[in-house]
Design brief:
By secondary structure, the protein is of the alpha/beta class. It is 36% helix and 21% strand. Strands 3-2-1-4-7 form a five-stranded mixed β-sheet. Helix 2 runs parallel beside helix 3 and helix 7 packs across helix 8.
Length: 307
C-alpha cells in the first residue's frame, strides 16, 4: 500500500497550530467546525524546540495518531523547504526546520506557512473574503501580518508577498527587530498602543492593551489619544497599500480589532487625507481560533504534499 493510501486509512485528526509572537493556539478540525484544544504561551526566549515539545505533548494527550497537521507562524516562511527563515517577533528563531521538527514529534505529514496566510485560508473557506477580485487581509496584534488574495487564491510572489508590517512608513523612524527602521508595525501594533498611552500619562504602571481598552471605554483621555494616534498610523499604511495595489477592499483581523471602535474613524480620516480611493476596510469577526483553523484547513488540503 502506498504512503498516501496508508495515510488516508488513518483514523486520526487534522490538526492546526497557530504560532504567534505571544500565544500559540492548537486544535483540530471536526465535523461542522474546529475544536480548540489548548492555548500556550509561545515564550520566544525559551527557543523553538521547547515550544515544539509542548505542542507534541498537547496533541499526544488528546489521543490517536494525527492524520496530518498544518502550522502557521509569524515570520518569513520558506514553504517548500519547511523553514522559518526569520521572525522579528520570535527573536533568535532563524532558519528553523519547523516542518521537520513538527512532523517528527507528531508522526504525521506537516505543511507550514506564514500565520497571516493561514488566517486568510480560514477567511476564504468561510466566505468572509469574496471569491472574486483582489483583496488584502491584514492582521494587527503583536506585529502586522499581511496576505494578498486574488480570486480566492493567496498570492505569494517569489514566496514572501504580504509582509506589509515591514514596509517603511517613517524613513528615519524607530528601529525594528527586522533590521530596518520605521516599519509600519512599529507604529501600528499592540506595543505601539502602549507607547502612545505612556506618552499621554505620567503613570508608572505598565498597562496592557486590554487595560488601555478598558480605560478608553471609560472615556479616559490618555487611552482615547493612544487609539487616535494608532488609528492615524494605521490609516497611513492603508493609504500606501491602496496606492500600490488598488485592492477591491481590505479585511482587518487580529488581537486589536476588538478596539476598532476607538481607532477606525481616525484611520479612515487619515486615509482620505492621503488617498482618493474608496474606503472599503472591514473588520473580520473576532476569533482567536481562526489562525489555527486555517492551518488545519491547509494541512487537510495539502496533507500528501509533504512528509
Amino acid at each position: 500500500m502506498g504512503r498516501s493510501s496508508a495515510l488516508s486509512n488513518r483514523n486520526g485528526k487534522r490538526w492546526g497550530i497557530d504560532i504567534g509572537g505571544t500565544t500559540t493556539i492548537i486544535g483540530y478540525l471536526k465535523p461542522g467546525g474546529f475544536e480548540k484544544v489548548k492555548s500556550l504561551n509561545t515564550d520566544p526566549s525559551s527557543g523553538p524546540d521547547s515550544l515544539i515539545r509542548k505542542i507534541g505533548k498537547v496533541v499526544s494527550e488528546t489521543g490517536g495518531t494525527p492524520l496530518c497537521a498544518g502550522a502557521g507562524i509569524a515570520g518569513l516562511v520558506n514553504r517548500n523547504d519547511g523553514l522559518l527563515i526569520s521572525s522579528p517577533n520570535l527573536s533568535g528563531w532563524r532558519n528553523y526546520p519547523l516542518r521537520e521538527k513538527l512532523s517528527d514529534i507528531l508522526k504525521c505529514p506537516v505543511v507550514i506557512d506564514n500565520d497571516c496566510n493561514v488566517f486568510a485560508l480560514q477567511a476564504i473557506e468561510s466566505s468572509c473574503i469574496p471569491p472574486e477580485g483582489l483583496w488584502l487581509m491584514i492582521t494587527v496584534g503583536t506585529g502586522i501580518g499581511g496576505t494578498i488574495v486574488q480570486d480566492g487564491t493567496i498570492v505569494y510572489g517569489t514566496g514572501y508577498a504580504g509582509e506589509f508590517g515591514h514596509m517603511t512608513v517613517e524613513a528615519s523612524g524607530k528601529k525594528c527587530p527586522c533590521g530596518s527602521r520605521g516599519c509600519w508595525e512599529r507604529y501600528a501594533s499592540s506595543a505601539a498602543v502602549i507607547d502612545y498611552y505612556n506618552k499621554h500619562t505620567n503613570e508608572s504602571t505598565h498597562r496592557t492593551p486590554k487595560e488601555i481598552f478598558d480605560l478608553a471605554a471609560m472615556n479616559k483621555v490618555a487611552a482615547l489619544k493612544a487609539y487616535e494616534e494608532f488609528g492615524i498610523w494605521l490609516g497611513i499604511g492603508l493609504a500606501s497599500l491602496y496606492r500600490c495595489l488598488s485592492p477591491a477592499g481590505v479585511y482587518l483581523a487580529g488581537g486589536l480589532m476588538g478596539s476598532s471602535k476607538f481607532f477606525l474613524e481616525h484611520a479612515e480620516s487619515e486615509f482620505h487625507r492621503r488617498c482618493a480611493s474608496e474606503w472599503n476596510v472591514n473588520v473580520l469577526p473576532s476569533s482567536s481560533d481562526a489562525g489555527a483553523e486555517g492551518a488545519a484547513i491547509m494541512g487537510r488540503d495539502r496533507k500528501c504534499m509533504r512528509g
